[in-house]
Amino acid sequence: MSGARAPNNLSRRLGSVQSIQSTQSLKDGNRRSRAASRARPTAVSYDDAYSYALRVALLNYLLQPRKKRKEYVSAPKPVVRTHSSSIGDLMKEFVPSGSVHNKLPHSFRSLLEKRMSGVLQGSERLAGYNDAVVKRSFAEAYTAFTARDFQRSIDKDRKVEPLILIFYSSASKAQSRGKTPEDHSWRPLVDRHLAMFIRLLSNILQGHGGDQYRELISRLNTLENKLLTNDQNLSLDTGQQDHSFVEVEVPLSYEIKDMHMAQVVAKIFGLTNSQVQADIDSKASQWTEEAALKDFKAYQFRLSANLSGTLRRQDFDVDEAFDDWKRQESPHLAQIFAEILSVRPDLKGTTTADKALPARPYSLYGEDQAYADLGKMISNSDSGSSFGFDSSLSLGSLSLEDKASIRSVDEPSYTFIPSDPRAVYKMILQYAMSYDQLHSDPSSPYFPFSDQTTELLLELSIRWRIPQFTRYITFLEVAVRKFLDQELTTEQLDVCFDFVKEANPNPPKKTPPIQIFNATLLEIEPSRWTMTDFAGYQQALRDLHDALLRDLFTLLMRCYDPKPPSIGVVMSVLVNHVYNDEAFSQRPEDAADFSQQLENGLRQQAANAYQRYLDSNIPENQDEWHFGHVVKLGQAVVGLAERTKNRYRKNPEIMGVSPYKILVETIFPNFEQDAQEFITRVIETAKAREEEIELEDGFDLYKELVQIRKIHTASLPGKPFGFHIESLLETFVWRWIKNAEERMTSFVEEAIKQDPFKVRTHNPQDIPTDEERHSVSILDTFTLFNQTVDQVYKLEWDDDVHHAKFMTALSKGFAAGIGRYCEIVEQQFAKEMDRQTAQEAAVSSKTAQEKWLQYAKDAWNTKEKIEPFQFYPESFVKLNNIEYAMQALDKLEKLINVDACAEVLQKAEGPKPPVKRPARYVFTIKIVEAEDLKACDPSGFSDPYVVLCDEYQKRLAKTRIIMRNLNPRWDESVDITVSGALNIIATIWDYDTFGDHDFVGRTSLKLDPIHFSDYLPREFWLDLDTQGRLLLRVSMEGERDDIQFHFGKAFRHLKRTERDMVRKITDKLTTHINASLSHEALKNLLSRGIAASMASLWKKRQSTVPPVTSMDIENALQPLFTYFNENFAIMKQTLTDATMVAVMTRLWKEVLMAIENLLVPPLSEKPSNQKPLTQPEMDVVYRWLQLLFDFFNAKDHETGEVLGVPADVLKSPKWHELASLNFFYFETTENLIRTSERMAAANAQRAQQQAAQQLPSGNPSFANRLSAPPTFGPTFAAFGSLGTIRRGKSIMMSRNLGTMRKAKEEKRKEAQADPSDDMILRILRMRPEAANYLRERHRQKERMAAAQAAAMIVRQSVSQGFGAGPAFGGAMYGRNNLPRR
Known about the structure:
Elements: H1 46-62, E1 68-74, H2 87-94, H3 108-121, H4 132-145, H5 148-157, H6 161-176, H7 187-207, H8 214-227, E2 243-249, H9 260-268, H10 273-283, H11 289-305, H12 319-343, H13 367-379, H14 403-407, H15 421-438, H16 451-464, H17 468-484, H18 490-501, H19 531-556, H20 568-579, H21 588-617, H22 627-647, H23 659-688, H24 695-715, H25 725-753, H26 776-795, H27 800-833, H28 838-844, H29 848-860, H30 873-896, H31 898-909, E3 921-931, E4 944-950, E5 955-958, E6 969-978, E7 982-990, E8 998-1007, E9 1018-1023, E10 1029-1038, H32 1043-1076, H33 1079-1100, H34 1110-1132, H35 1137-1159, H36 1175-1193, H37 1207-1210, H38 1213-1224, H39 1229-1253, H40 1297-1313, H41 1318-1324, H42 1331-1360
Antiparallel strand pairs: 1-2, 3-6, 3-10, 4-5, 4-7, 7-8, 9-10
Helix pairs in contact: 1-9, 1-15, 1-16, 3-4, 3-7, 4-6, 6-7, 7-8, 11-12, 12-13, 15-16, 15-17, 17-18, 17-19, 18-20, 19-20, 21-22, 21-23, 22-23, 22-24, 23-24, 24-25, 25-26, 25-27, 26-27, 26-30, 27-30, 27-31, 27-32, 30-32, 32-34, 32-35, 34-36, 35-36, 39-42
């Protein structure tokens, strides 16, 4: 690695290093001052450092274990032995007569077999057994020894003689195999191998308790010697060689090529090997092992006498530290002495010729004992290693040769140890680090020293007795100095600190003679250091702290640059190695001063950074400014803030200063002030040029400003943002909403135009799911709606009032789009449903006479089966779309949170003052029913329908056709939006299949908002200009710019469209329903039964008529059920489940109306010509009702699952009215009138109580204003449902599916809570004697309605705070209830 620091680092101003104070006592006298007792550190020259390093390198070479080599030595030719004695003679000598046989141990055989197996495998530890010829003899013997019989014999007798004899026999067999009988050269080998076997036996016995078998072992040794000749060595000579090798020591060459440590010294000090060789040659006679021994003897003496030349008591701050160090130094010195004497044993007995040294008080052993211990150590076979000695050995009593050194004890004179070892070691450290750094591999991680340098420094520490803590501290002093001199980077300095504070991962196998060598700096207590080391360490930390702070300041001044430098390593060194060190101390005021300077510098750098962004993103010419410049400036500011925040996320504060907070505090207020000015000027310039700024530019600017505001709010919670962003950019959102509203209806029209209205199945053979039965036009429409809302939500507009207004404007556009969709789809649906059938098309091409003949034929041919109407699948898909639209609109209403938006606007704008004349009004006209219409058909009936037009002949609505009825009931509604009074004309026509439709009658009504200022619904019986009258129910609501109103309007569009489309579907089935449930069908059923009964009576001569059976009643409805099933099968193919239930529910309502028409006439004050049914007819009708209920409910008898319309839907209020009708139907007129009067009185009392509860508290005087003269509105609201005017279905009640369900449930509860006498009055219409009561009851209802209307006006006047004026009255209404202005 390069020794130079990175070029971007500024040079440091290095402070002067405080010198170590001289030794002096502290004032308290308890502790000594931290001053060195050795010589004051002086400048160490290059030559001195080199000289002492070379001396130690040479000493290392001299003390290395001597190398040995084998030399060839010719052996004299052995005398050929003549075997005059046989093996038997030897055994006689082995076991002399009269001797006692020593038995072998019990486990001897197994031990012998194991050892012989080891010989064969080559694992025998004794020397000489690995020869292949030896193994051959032992293998033959091993086979014999493992024979079962021989093993039992040996285990029984436990004698050694059989073993020897069998081995001799086996060896002879093995060695003679393949030899000629004349060849006896193998016989000496047998003797030799037998001797080796006997040696193996002796070794086994010695390992098994040699004292017990001493005599046997002695005889075995004797026998072994007799078998060997010429004193052969079994471990070297195999018996087959005539020569041998001997080991001799290699003499020292004193050449540098053999001195690896001297070569390291040469490299470190930049010298050539020849130069170093010359120095070694000139000093080799002086730098000897003997001189080293003298140095360490003198060192030991001075240490014992507390003299200079070693560390002394005054070098330590605590006496216990010195005593502990001194006590542990003795065994390490013993290791060094042993190392020297192991190489030079001749120095063991050297003594001085002068007088003996004075007695040494610190000696632990006498002189003789010390030399004895040293001799044992040298003779140990393991003493060849450098440091493997007994640490308990003391050589305190060794004599010294150098008498001069003893006499001049105050002036130490060493050969290998410098006068100031610490200073010289520190200097060599500097050279070593510089050399290793210069010659290191740049691609490898940094490490302070190479292995060779580490070995040299360790050797210096051992020979100069430098403590481990001193080694660490001097190394850190050198590292810090190199860092200050910019020779080390901060990362490298961090590695240096970790080097001394972390354990060595690869410690030496044998610990060198240095105290606590394996301990790290953190594990050595500072109290055990010398005062020189502690002072030097403190000064190094102070110098390093100052330099790191300067580096940190320089680096942080660039923290706002695009690529700022990292401060991680600097902070890591500061925190981990300076601040966390107990040896470092800093004054609080110094830290505060640095923090203040750092903060001031960062603020200036933040301002400079913002100025650079201004210069680079904002043009100088103001006419060139646009929002993109502000966006870029904001992005630059936000990017800088985010980068700074992320960079210092883990450590937000540095030295008590937060770069991110300072950045925000400095830049953001300036940006906010400038941004407001830029935006204002851009907008003004665009207005002056009559140009429009792109919407996307405005939205991009808003998003950027919002991001900055979030950062501002989080970082500066107590300081408001510079300006209100939403107010400044609100116009862009309104422009976007306006554009969205303008394209809403056109998008809907185009979506319908492109829609084929087909189910969306992937495979035509698959049955479509409910989700696939909607077409793309409605999906695209609501996708547009949701995307439009999402666009506003994505803005994250941070102004609730603005957001609520935006949603209100969008909801208005949604309502318009849905209204247009409903209008177009309903027109297409009506066209498809009103088309001519194939029969009608065929008839239309005939002449008039042919048409009449066909009509007559169809009228008489009643037995022909009625074919189901061929519905188009496209028609049902349109109905599915409307059902889907209601669900999607409900989800959209919840997404927007309509109620919350309305609440926000109400709170922000406060209660709105009442508006007497809104700009627009919505009239809801419900065409309820007609009475006594003119008969236009030959059958005495008409097929009426109503057309509503305005005074300009513009068609507003058309009802469905009610076939063959003079008292039809339509119950259809239409919404009309007006800005002033409007006359509407209602014309009733008679539908004719062939030819023009006949005129039935006409009437008119003026819709004036003034007359409906109380917003109460009214019912008008309008007389036709021919015959009969028409009932209209009218209510008015002000057109409000309210989000709830717009959603309610959209829901009403959908609900009415669905209702009208369902009615058009059910109208195709109504004719057959009315025909099947008519008086004619009832009479035909009973007449067939009577005719059959009369024929049976005539034949059987019986006197009684059998009744109509249940099967007959059921069979009468079978054609209707079949017709329903055929049509339902067609519908089920396309309609969704929900839409199918809606159609069936509407059909059920038609069924209930048909049943009702059978039982009673419509409600009116006039008597009716309809006759009441008889009891048998009543039984049939109610049986039909039950059968139809079961049919529409379609309950599975096995599982109980309802497959049709749920029972709670079928049991509607109308069903309950019909069910209760049976209780009153055959009552007398008097009882019915009394029951009606009781109900009317109860309803009147309940109405008065409700009115009293609604009066303003504390104003009882209002009670007198609830009554009204009888002539107040004499023709107002002839017959309400309960005789009172109730609140109608307003748009606000239809703003979502929840409110619609709630309104329906309230209506059901009202019907159950307030019993009505309407059914009684309808029964009384068939009683001529009740005509007077009907008229009186009609007038009573008029008075009740007038009183309630007056009360409502009073309440509104009080609550609104202004006089509403007369809403209606006698003077305001003319003929036919048409209001005059």
